[in-house]
Amino acid sequence: MASVDQTLLYGLLFANAALYALLILGIFKKRGSGLEASSVAEAFLLLEAALKKKFPDMPAGFTWREAMGRIRDMNPRLDWKSLEGVLKGYEAYRYGGFELSYTDPGEVLRLASVLGKGARFVRGP
C-alpha cells in the first residue's frame, strides 16, 4: 500500500513540475514575441504604426522630422546618430527615388519598441 501512495505522490509532483515548466516557458515565449521586419522599409511601417498609436494627435501627412522632434522630447535612450543615418537613407529611397541599400533596421525597431510596438529584425529570404 505504501508503494502505491509513494507512486501517486511522485506522479503528482512530476505533473506539478511539468505544469510550472510549461507556464515559465510560455511567459518567456510571450516576452520574446513581437512584430518582425525583414527590411528597413518594413521597419519604418512598424515605426509609423507605433507613432500613430503613441501620438494619435499627429497630423495626417506628418514628416519624419516632425515625428523625430516629438520622440526626442520623450528622451529615449537610442543611438540617434545611427537613427538619423537610417532615416536619411530611407527618405532618399522613399522620396528621392534612390535605391534602398541594405541598412540594419535595428535602431528603427528599437524605437518602435520604445513607442510600444515590440519588433525585431528577421532576415528575409
Q: How many separate domains make up the residues?
A: 2
Q: Give unreliable regions as ranges.
A: 118-122
Strand order of the largest sheet: 1-2
> What's the helical proportion of residues?
55-70%
Number of strands: 2
Look at the helices and sheets and give the structural class.
Answer: mainly alpha
Largest β-sheet summary: 2 strands, parallel
The SSE string, one letter per element, is HEHHHHE
Q: How many angstroms does the end-to-end distance come to? A: 61 Å
Broad shape: elongated
Number of helices: 5
Radius of gyration based on Cα positions: 23 Å
Q: Describe the oligomeric state of these chains in a short phrase.
A: single chain
Mean pLDDT: 78
Beta-sheet strand percentage?
A: under 5%
Please specify the SSE layout and strand pairing:
Blueprint: H1 2-32, E1 35-37, H2 40-54, H3 64-74, H4 80-96, H5 106-114, E2 119-121
Parallel strand pairs: 1-2
Helix pairs in contact: 2-5
Question: How would you sum up this structure, described in words?
Answer:
The protein has helices at 2-32, 40-54, 64-74, 80-96, 106-114, and strands at residues 35-37, 119-121. The protein is mainly alpha-helical and 125 residues long. The protein folds into 2 domains: 1-33; 36-121, no CATH class. Strands 1-2 form a two-stranded parallel ribbon. Helix 2 (40-54) packs parallel to helix 5.
